[in-house]
Amino acid sequence: MTEATIEVRGLRKRYGPLAAVDDLSFTVRPGRVTGFVGPNGAGKSTTMRVIMGLDRPDAGQALVSGRPYAQLPVPLCEIGALLDPAACHPGRSATDHLRWLAHTAGLPERRIAEVLTAVGLTDVARRPTGGYSLGMRQRLGIAVALLGDPPVLIFDEPVNGLDPQGIRWMRGLLNSLAAEGRAVLVSSHLMRELEGVADHLVVLSRGRAIADTTVAELIESVARGRVELRTERREEALAALTALGATVAVTGDDSLTVAGLPAERVARALAERSVPHRELGPHRPSLEEAYMEISREAVEFEPADLPFPGEVAP
Ligand SMILES: Nc1ncnc2c1ncn2[C@@H]1O[C@H](COP(=O)(O)OP(=O)(O)OP(=O)(O)O)[C@@H](O)[C@H]1O
Fold first, then answer.
1. What are the residue ranges spanned by the domains of the chain?
2. Which helix (H) or strand (E) holds 23?
3. Does residue 14 have its Cβ closer than 6 Å to ligand 1?
4. Spatial separation of the C-alpha atoms in residues 126 and 133, rounded to whole Å
5. Which segments of the chain have a pLDDT < 50?
6. pLDDT value at position 193?
7. Contact, 248 vs 257, CB < 8 A?
8. Whose CA is closest to atom 24 on ligand 1?
9. What is the pTM of this model?
């Protein structure tokens, strides 16, 4: 049996002079949630549209379990997608919308009740969807994605507009879909939305992947042996450590992060100058911090003469 995957290879998509997606390659593997993260306009939705065969790339390709979307025999049974929560006629009920889709894909009637239960819409399933809240429309979009019981799923900003209870539900759903062995790709422009959900991350900046890594590796790559400590005599500590060639960042009234010196050397330097300190240990950046740092580095190394997505070339 073919493994459930999404393989994006050398993908490019331009809109006029703008490279919305620029030589992008990554793989979404089964049994885990892959977070697809980047700021607004980074190219996430464009990539997802190409995967779903809704946009034609200028170069490269996106394969779903080894085949382009257009060659999938019954697409609904191969890949489910939540790209637009409102893509339903407002006068139609959720049941009718799902029945029509199930019919066109040759799926059994029982799948309708099953997916309505899975997304918690059973009680309102006969009401016209025009009266649905954003959260209910989002759940209906997920019901559509799950209808064909596909092994591959993609969700574009699925928690947008959801209340805290809805967000919790969504996180549980994403984790359980991955635990069932499905390949799950979830986009967000906020790293904290993916914390505790994504096992793997593809970080996008201006159409390019700036990281394709596990969450643990990303944090480790940013920590880079840095040391943090607290001291009431921050300025003295700062001067002493800087004099030894360390790069020191002030992170609070009484806290510092030190790069370029091992923890023992930092401790010794402060002891020699009788600067009291506490909680000296390895720096553990949050996922959000790690994301901000690699995004900043990516922007700093960007060639300045290229038009960025969202800007018009002079
Ligand atoms: N149909 C289009 N015509 C012209 N430009 C487009 C089109 N679709 C997207 N773009 C541009 O391509 C770039 C990437 O957009 P895209 O929607 O893929 O980003 P995104 O990462 O999904 O952003 P967001 O988080 O805001 O959804 C943006 O600069 C956007 O303005």
1. 6-220, 226-282
2. strand 18-28
3. no
4. 15
5. 304-314
6. 86
7. yes
8. 40
9. 0.85
